[in-house]
Request: fold
Amino acid sequence: MNLFRTVLRPVGLIGAALMALVATAHAQHAGYRTFTLAGEPPTTVALFYPTAAPDRVVPMGPWLPAVAPGAPASDAQLKGLILISHGTGGTELNHHNLATRLAREGYLVAAVRHTGDNWQDRSLIASGRYFSERPLQLSRVLDALLASPEWGSRIPTERIGAVGHSAGGYSVLALAGAQAEAQRSTQHCAAVQDDPGYCSLAKGAAVAQAPGMPAAPAASAAAQATQPVSVPDRRIRAVAALAPMAVVFTPQSLAAISVPVLILMAEKDAVLNGKYHGGYVAANLPKAQLSTVGGAGHFAFMAQPTFPLPSAAGDAAANPPGFDRAAFLPALESQVTEFFADQWR
Reply:
């Protein structure tokens, strides 16, 4: 395991941001479009892809992605396909900055709005299918893209990766082969006192079903699911898990993961105590790459919203004192992009 602590300081981050801008100044731009995957209910997917058309900042709710909406895709060979899975109650735009960076580097990126676990609809939380359905939605999107007349023949099937944050981190690790046992959540929260963010969300999940009351998936699914969940997708060749929710995984299944894994944790994560989640994955998967972002909170891996986004886990737009998310994000984008590039050189 490559274990190191990343302490990010303002000067270094500004330098990283400038380097990223210089590196991409003459690169391709990021096209943007959405499509709907049929189902009950349907799934919305945002595609980010390389294009020669100039991109621009396009306000979309609390987000400011720099994209070229509807632009034609570049004819250049795609470097690969990256799926992006947001956290519970999120949107397909939560990580637009990472998606556009990957698109400019030559990747097709599919950011999924998880059906039943997004800002408008959290019905999946109480369905008893959370642990299986969330990663399966990503696999269905992959099915659709590989069958697409436009994209299928252009996607190098040996270069398919996935990035997930929080519950999205759970989702991509499940695709990599990790198996969940829902009762582990209940056992965990009965045994420890130093994971209060996770356990308070878990305790409230069963009652926080009223409109406007976001809930974490872990306990609701834990209370209802009775069998181990195994939904691997062997087409996924590398995963990056950002502040992942992972205490529900069995150590044996984590140890059996064979694809490259990058784990990023936040030093001041008040939602998921890293030693029980990202650190737990790394402890059972010694070949994983692990780093901790100094001063960062749980939401540091998301794009910076333009206004507060309150949730049961806290304000997704807020940052711990002294942490500059806007300065950090270019470094994150570079680290994730380089991780995938390293696997496929």
Remarks:
- Residues 116 and 122 are 5 Å apart (CA to CA).
- The mean pLDDT is 87.
